[in-house]
Amino acid sequence: MDSIGHAVLRPCDYRVMPWKNGGGTTREIAVFPDAGDIAAPSFLWRVSMADIVHSGAFSRFAGYDRTLILMNGHGLLLQCDDKPAVTLDAPYQRLDFAGECAVHCTLTNGPVRDLNVMVARNAAGAVTTVLRPGREPVKHAVGGETVLMHCAEGSITVEVRGQDTCEIGEGETLRIDGGARAAEYVLLRSARAIPALAITIQIAVQQGAQGNPTATHSGPGLA
Hints:
The protein is mainly β. 0% of the residues lie in helices and 54% in strands. It contains no helices and 21 strands.
């Protein structure tokens, strides 16, 4: 059986960068390819966490599709263009939106932390799922060239296609890279008596895609 590459990313591995407006910080969990300059992004996909401490406008990422998941805090209200405002007031609620939309964030009761998934439209795609593994192993199908499994609560034991087993703790992320040899499935369970929760992001990149140089970042808003 072909080997599947995997690595555990810990919080100390995440790249910390300030917002352009200086109002907070973003922790970049993983990005491909590593363009380096968030002000002129050319990545195909990016997964990060942001601490929002003030209400304000989101930065625009034209050409990208975004998923925002509330991780902790007491809620935020998101106004996207002229669409009805959406309130996220419970952990792991999400909002999907286009990166070019004008998004204004209003904190409803103090700072929050969110998870952000961005993919270059027409070049990559991502499926994001919240999982609550129990003490008994559960088989979870996965697909795409890259799978990121972020442990949001507790600790989780993960077995990759019957080959390798590892444990990820709260705040850590398991990255699985398979390329043409996709992982197909993982077995996961809570490693402790404390209930666990994981967020999985399955990422697929279209063959031949090299980046998204036409996408532009505009405005000094939130990351």
